[in-house]
Design brief:
By secondary structure, the chain is mainly α. The protein is built from 21 helices and no strands. It has one domain. The chain starts with 7 loop residues before the first helix and ends in an 11-residue tail after the last helix.
Length: about 550
């Protein structure tokens, strides 16, 4: 029996619910960065922290947000759809047990080889007294985060396959809560314990990782899952995951070469460059998480189910819905970040140890990163679609090619425009990656309802131009009335500018018939009305 494809409004409601949870996490992430910037600015301590955090992130990309996750979710969904929950629970326990053992072993190796890992990334830190030693110390504290985030990602994939989106989307908020609480409570007491104040941030990473795991357990238990250690290397589901992960691991290796080159280039750009780039990327990740990840999280399980049922028509429709909605929301978000980069950075971070010089440098990096926002988001749908079809080789080969282009661009651009060459090269590569994947996916599944997606792009571009003009005009016009003399004036001016821009965007979207935007707005309005009426809103989208 052929499943009916889900409608655009249905995807909008699911994505909206995920976006609500994700926005909570991203807002807390901004608060976390604000606290970090206030306490430490963009100096040596924060540079050391960010480089140290790259070490567990090397492996997290494989076991949490990369090859393992991309291989696990479609496979778990396929087993759940075809064989039922008992078989799916067994596969999950097998994966979780294997994952825990492997990541624990990698953590042990990381603790042994921390020095060569850190010096490979940040050899230039040796020229600053104490900076390399601080980076080593922070890396050793944070390494166990790998195991925690890998388990959390597996839990998230299981719940998404069960159409439970809210709690897993909210779970990253626990990471930010743990970090914020740790900074507030532990920074003052670190010296008494013989540790540098920035160690409180590293400890917060572990506390937050544990929170990501813990918050998802009750819902999984309610769904019937029970944790039972199982190791069965003959399990066909586990073998399928390993087969899919094989090319993915190659893609990860290429990606990490890129990360390695970028980190080395950034650490060679002087004190502050690593911090400016990370603050900017984190801010760019706010709309990416709320829009890109939310839409992809809602769409991917449905895409996987249609692939498992061998229903290409429904799969095409689902992918097209996701892409059209991506463009409808990401193009305005990109323009907003570009036009308002400086006032946004000033309002969020410019206080305490974070200076006006840091604001200007971070805002410039944000503009460069924002250019690639749509590319990052589209990949979130296109890559899992290939995995759902059992094809991991294609996205991996595209990734390898894109990484090579990215490395070349970054090396050349850094020589010409300094640290800004890194976000500029990364954005160009992200757009190239997305375009290549979409073209190949279109060939693989016999089309992507191209006329409808193209129409959404044109309409979204028109609405975005209208919004951008209003944003620029309002910001410039209000500067004479509300100058930068006080934080209150800055917040008021930015708030009025954003409000006016959103109103202009909504009006323009309605005038040009941008249905994907109005679907999201309508879903949000329905949720507000339900909340006001006192009806139970629930914490999942099983009824969607």
């Amino acid at each position: 029996m052929t499943a009916q494809p889900s409608s655009g409004p249905k995807l909008a409601r699911a994505a909206g619910l995920i976006g609500l949870a994700t926005s909570t996490s991203r807002i807390l992430g901004l608060v976390r960065d604000q606290v970090l910037a206030y306490l430490f600015g963009a100096g040596n301590a924060v540079d050391a922290y960010y480089v140290a955090f790259r070490i567990p992130n090397l492996l997290r990309d494989l076991f949490a947000e990369g090859a393992m996750s991309a291989a696990f979710v479609p496979t778990f969904t396929r087993v759940l759809t075809r064989d039922g929950r008992p078989a799916a629970w067994r596969l999950a326990n097998n994966v979780l047990t294997t994952l825990t053992l492997v990541t624990a072993a990698l953590v042990g190796l990381g603790l042994i080889f921390t020095w060569p890992l850190v010096t490979a990334f940040a050899g230039d830190y040796e020229s600053v007294p104490g900076k390399l030693d601080l980076t080593l110390q922070l890396a050793r504290i944070m390494l166990p985060f790998l195991t925690l985030v890998a388990i959390a990602a597996a839990f998230m994939g299981m719940l998404n396959a069960l159409n439970r989106f809210f709690v897993p989307a909210l779970s990253p908020a626990m990471f930010n809560v743990g970090s914020i609480v740790s900074m507030v409570i532990l920074v003052p007491v670190m010296p008494a314990l013989g540790l540098p104040p920035i160690a409180a941030v590293a400890i917060g990473v572990l506390v937050g990782g544990a929170g990501q795991v813990a918050v998802q357990v009750p819902l999984l238990v309610r769904e019937g899952f029970r944790l039972k250690p199982i190791i069965d290397l003959r399990d066909p589901g586990l073998r399928q995951i390993l087969v899919l992960m094989g090319p993915g691991t190659l893609g990860l290796a290429a990606t990490q070469i890129n990360v390695f080159v970028n980190t080395v280039l950034a650490t060679g750009e002087g004190t502050g460059a690593v911090s400016w780039l990370n603050y900017a990327f984190r801010l760019m990740y706010l709309p990416l998480g709320i829009v890109g990840v939310s839409i992809a999280t809602a769409a991917v399980p449905a895409i996987a189910r249609h692939a498992a049922r061998d229903d290409p028509r429904a799969m095409r429709h689902e992918v097209a819905n996701g892409l059209a909605m991506m463009f409808a929301l990401n193009l305005p978000a990109t323009a907003g970040l570009i036009v308002l980069a400086r006032p946004i950075i000033a309002v969020l971070f410019e206080r305490g140890a974070f200076t006006a010089v840091d604001t200007a440098a971070t805002a410039a990096a944000l503009v460069c990163y924002a250019v690639g926002l749509t590319g990052y988001s589209v990949v979130k749908i296109a890559t899992p679609a290939f995995y759902a079809l059992g094809e991991s080789r294609t996205p991996v080969l595209v990734t390898v090619g894109t990484v090579l282009v990215n490395v070349a661009l970054n090396v050349v651009l850094v020589q010409r425009i300094g640290y800004l060459g890194l976000p500029a090269g990364t954005s160009i590569a992200a757009l190239l990656n997305a375009l290549t994947l979409v073209v190949l996916l279109r060939r693989r599944i016999g089309g992507l309802e191209g006329a409808r997606v193209a129409a959404a792009v044109v309409r979204a571009s028109i609405a975005t131009l209208a919004m951008s003009a209003v944003a620029y005009g309002l910001n410039r016009g209000l500067m004479s009335v509300l100058p930068d003399a006080t934080l209150f004036a800055q917040i008021t001016r930015l708030g009025l500018t954003i409000t006016g821009s959103v109103v202009a965007l909504a009006a323009a979207a309605r005038m040009v018939g941008l249905r994907e935007f109005t679907d999201v707005a309508h879903a949000a309005w329905l949720r507000v009305r339900r909340n006001r009426s006192g009806r139970a809103t629930g914490t999942d989208v099983a009824d969607l």
